[in-house]
Design a protein that fits this description.
The complex is a heterotrimer. Chain A is mainly alpha-helical. Chain A has 3 helices and no strands. Chain B is of the alpha+beta class. Chain B is 32% helix and 32% strand. Chain B has helices at 3-32, 39-45, 130-135; strands at residues 34-37, 51-58, 64-66, 69-75, 84-89, 102-110, 113-116, 122-123. A 5-stranded mixed beta barrel of chain B has the order 2-4-5-7-6. Chain B is elongated. Chain C is α+β, with helices and mostly antiparallel strands. In chain C, 64% of the residues lie in helices and 10% in strands. Chain C contains 21 helices and 11 strands. In chain C, helix 10 (271-294) runs antiparallel to helix 11 (308-331). Classes of the chains: A mainly alpha, B alpha+beta, C alpha+beta.
Chain lengths: 101, 136, 743
Amino acid sequence: MPAVELVIVILVVGAVAFVLSAPLRRAPAAADDDRDAARGEIDELEVARDAKYREIRDAELDYRTGKLSEADWRALDAGLRAEAIEILRALDRAAGRSGTA
Amino acid sequence: MDPARKRTVRLVVALTAALFLATFLVYTSFSAGSQARTPTQLLRDAQPGRSYQLTGKVVPGSIRQAGETLDFRVRDRTGNTAASVPVAYTGTVPDPFRAGREVIVTVHKRGGGFVGERDSLQTKCPSKFKAARDGA
Amino acid sequence: MATVGRALLILALAISVYGIVASLYGARRGDRRFVDSGRRAVYVLFGVVALAFGLLEAAFLRTDLSFALVADHSASTLSTFYRATALWSSQEGSLLLWLFLLAGWSSLALLLTRHRLRAIAPYATAVLLGFGAFFSFLVVFLASPFETLARVPAEGAGLNPLLRHWAMMVHPPALYSGYTLIAVPFAFAIGALVTRRAGAEWIGATRRFALGAWLALGVGILLGALWSYTELGWGGYWAWDAVENAALLPWLTATAFIHSGMIQERRGMLKVWNASLILATGVLAIIGTFLVRSGILSSIHAFVEPGALLRWLFVGLIVVMIAGSVGLVLSRRDALRTEHRIDSLLSREAFFLFQNVVLVGLVFVIFWGTFFPLISEAVTGTKSSVGPPWFSRYVGPLALVLVALIGIGPLIPWRRASAGVLRRQLAVPLAGGVATALVLLLAVPVTRGKPLALLMFALCAVVVVGVGQELWRGARARAAMSGESPPVALVALVRRNRRRYGGYLVHLGVAVLLIGVAASSAFATVQEVRLRPGGRATVNGYTFTYVRATSRLRADELAYGAVVDVRRDGRHVTTLRPAKGWYSSAGGSLADGAIGRWFDGEPESAIGVKPGLRRDLWTAVEPDTSAIRPVIARADRRFSALMRRFGPVFATAAPAAQRRLVSGIEAGVRTAVQRISARYVASSPPAIFRILISPLVTWIWLGALVVFLGALVALWPPPAAVRRRAPARYRARLAQDLAARVD
């Protein structure tokens, strides 16, 4: 292997090792586990919230375009909003626990 | 009927229908499929009136154009390369068709030779030209 | 530089293996440091593979013939575009492209989700790097793209002339992008199952990647069809060939997944089904790669006969994927329990489910037909295969049901539809379908003999009218609420509901595409005629006249063609110029004779086509060269005699004189070929023409464009969500959040 090629390969390997080991050189965070668990819960709730919002908006669009009767829509909308508020409450509780809010 | 029972009934009906359709599909594939044969196998046991998928290589120097009909011979891909069967073919010849190429063609026996079904000729697409380099 | 390339690939393999271990260790121990390091491994893998890819690409661009791959698949005579893309016409280059795209798309996915899915991500990283390790292993040990040649040839073998078509050069990256993008939701599904977090989260986070995979695969499939139509000389765009099917199968399951994923996102239903669908899609993507790259099924496109080891490795990977998927789904049944039941058979959910069943049925049919040669060999001992008629018999009716569902599904509300709503929603689209059928029956008599095609047209009309009705009603409602003018309201409506209206646009495109497919397969006329110059043939009211023969000699190609005049009712319609070319560098050798080799090169048809919105007029020509064969043989004999005489002179000549002599001989050969060609043209030679009149083929390409546009609309990222963190009164917050939302 000519010297130039050898140098290139060594440089690349060095750079790779440096980038990969950067997180390992960090001090271990003791509370990783708990925080992750809370964070995971928040993530899940946020997804649920977004899905609920989408459902509310879709229901409204469905009503406006004639796919739902007004009575059906009002009932559906009230139910969905109650569910969304439930999720928002849970989200705030979880955020309070994880201390990230 | 309570909902759980209704669901079970629906599931059973759907599964039965699916099973029935699947059986039909399997049956037709076996009855409609045409068998792949090598030239050696065709020479041994071809029967008139049945169609076969002939696979093999085009024998170099055997390609003759006679009006709309293209005559060529096909030999085994590997093993017995001496035996070959004559094929008379009409229809579109795919671009990669040439001597030495691997082809698949649907044929039936007529007289001493085989007649290729119109537009059934397929040629393997050679994406490698290694042979060309080694040979040159 | 080839050594550097090889070293980089070995490094890529090492990085992949390290990343798998680090991710799994970090996830098990709950140590974020290792998880982060594992994710970085994906980014680094991309960097290293990109470097290797760049090295190889550079070798192709400057035609460095010391690289075996370049010498085998490229030549300095090729244009820059083909030199750049010849890389993936090879087995080794394709595998490297796969690895490159996998690393790229995986990096993007992990970068975008780095703050989310923390529990799932390490496992997904490990799965993605597992694919990375597999393909790195292949390019390191079995199909190295960096082989070098001890003796550097003077010129490369060139690119297969059949592949010299823009669509065929873009097709592999598109297809592979699709396959590798599928790996992302596949990996996250595995992660979700392993960690028992099989809710809506992973579906939401990887939805865009599933959609992107669907789009890329679709583009790849369509380009393949376009290439087949314009390049292969038989005039078809689809032949149910094993390799075509291999790309269609994951596309169909991805279609099903994109739809049923919505049900899980909203209602927490169908978790087992969704997980199974995306796992199956992943397996089918690998099977697709395997089919093309292994030559296990006879196909016109199955390019290679690789070593048995590569086959077994692929089979091993597929078996591991299937067994792992099944095992995971079974062992995680408790986490996959559904949160709701379907309320009514007349609901969006139920229609999604019907559509899923039909799609899976299609997948089963196509899978069975594709693998039938292997199945029949295993069962009966002889290889049999089923042809296009077998496929059409099942796919046709299933496609009709599918279009009916596409037409009706979006018009039905979620959860439950009342009778009044159904009437209001379906009346106009169904009337549109019936009206279309009646008009066609009266105005286009040929449709009377083809009830299935007629039904397809009617159902597609239902889809089109339905989409129109949705847009109209949505825009009207918004205009009434906001006071905007209807066109402004329509744009705003689509912008705020990209997923919904992007999807509708896709449906519209599919309808247009299927109209094209139904019309061209039911009403095309094909005829083969043998004509001499001056001769004419009438097909479907069009008169094709073979005006004269043509010939053309380029640097590496000799082509004989025809000028064909097309008239209808005596009026000139168009002039078509089909030709058949022979690439001498690509196959002819001196054994054929210095002159004869020009006539026995790698053949390639250039079709003559006049595309139109109503119909395509398509011709290919097969020139009859039998009359000039004796002339060619005589010229070759004379040439050899000349060579024998000049041989001794040549051997003793000075190098400069030798070079002059060689170029003189080359010029002489070209002159001889040109003389023979002139003779061919003057002899008014017969030729076989394949004439195809195919209605509405253009609609296929147009419909596909609409499909892709719709997918882009659905994919386009919304502006960054407005974030509110301070606790407030929930109702107000909800209203505010809703007002700010864009999907």
